[in-house]
Design a protein that fits this description.
alpha+beta, N-terminal domain of MutM-like DNA repair proteins, Helicase, Ruva Protein, domain 3, elongated, disordered N terminus
């Protein structure tokens, strides 16, 4: 399966780390570490697309090139055409569609947006009377720049006339199909609990932290600990919980974990409500850009005065495992 290539890259990077070849390891992992959309961005896309494509049959699928980051799955077009999209979900930072084939068999369509991936939805045509009766909406987001046709790599036409295109100028996104159950995918098999789900709680996080000598920032980015957390929202959650990103996970303790878990949920929920965070190329399915970045407390604010009341310290930036961490050294311990 083509998705094994990314797992091999991770394996080679781990071997390079053990040999002390850190520059080689960073080179192998850099394409996977740079500016990927995080859970709120992916969830925003899911919520925007789901009402338009759930229950719809794919009438035609066109591939405008043979690959994105990896080649498309073998027989991808044949498997997808005629299939019905039963349910459009998210797992961690992946979009995951439950599909029903023309033979009634269940399979799953997995998509990763990469750095610049974007789904562009065009609703079915409406007649003039219906169009004139619609009340214009209030646009709360800045609009993303249009995508050139050469960057549209996948076109899907649904049975009701809805058109869905996938554009990805840098082609770091990818798609895959999974037979029978999502756990059969190597991308999903080792993921931890969803941070907004019932399986993620204080007891689970505290147990996972036992004996872990890694900094809590890196610990939370481990997708086997909790699925879908990324650099931006971990920085923000640690600030809100008053926990230094340098603190070892093993030294969190029950009281800090009791502050951290609800703050992880709160930060993610606020970002989803605000439409995600537009950094570089992320945009909604309709081209609108999120605006949660304007509400960052520490991320990207190095050198600025801490936003906490009665704190005059400056936000500090430090590098941890090749990623920027932002925190207040006075508020976060």
């Amino acid at each position: 399966m083509h998705c094994l290539r990314i797992l091999r890259a991770i394996g080679f990077a781990e071997q390079a780390c053990h040999r002390g070849q850190m520059s080689l390891a960073r080179g192998l992992l850099r394409p996977m570490m740079a500016a990927m959309p995080e859970l709120p961005e992916v969830e925003t896309v899911r919520r925007g697309l789901a009402p338009h494509i759930e229950g719809r049959r794919i009438k035609r699928l066109t591939l405008n090139r043979p690959n994105l980051r990896f080649p498309f799955p073998k027989n991808f077009v044949a498997q997808m055409e005629g299939a019905t999209l039963v349910h459009f979900a998210r797992r961690a930072k992946y979009l995951l569609a439950e599909m029903q084939s023309t033979k009634g068999e269940t399979f799953f369509w997995l998509s990763h947006l990469g750095m610049t991936g974007r789904f562009i939805l065009t609703p079915p045509p409406v007649d003039k009377a219906d169009k004139e009766s619609q009340t214009p909406g209030v646009f709360a987001h800045e609009q993303a720049a249009p995508v050139a046709d050469k960057h549209i790599h996948v076109d899907l036409d649904f049975d009701d006339g809805t058109h869905l295109a996938f554009a990805d100028p840098r082609r770091f996104g990818f798609m895959d199909t999974i037979d029978k159950t999502p756990e059969n995918s190597p991308f999903l098999a080792r993921l931890g609990p969803e941070p907004l789900g019932n399986d993620f709680n204080e007891a689970v996080l505290l147990a996972a932290a036992q004996g872990r000598q890694t900094p809590v920032k890196n610990f939370l980015l481990d997708q086997s600990v909790v699925a879908g957390l990324g650099n931006i929202y971990v920085c923000e959650a640690l600030f809100m919980a008053g926990i230094s990103p340098r603190r070892k996970a093993a030294n969190l303790g029950a009281k800090r974990v009791a502050r951290l878990v609800p703050e992880i949920r709160n930060v993610l929920a606020r970002a989803i409500a605000a439409g995600g965070s537009t950094l570089r190329d992320f945009a909604h399915e309709d081209g609108a850009m999120g605006y949660f970045q304007h509400d960052f407390k520490v991320y990207g604010r190095a050198g600025e005065i801490c936003s906490a009341p009665h704190c005059s310290a400056s936000v500090v930036r430090l590098m941890q495992s090749g990623r920027s961490s932002f925190y207040c050294p006075k508020c976060q311990r």
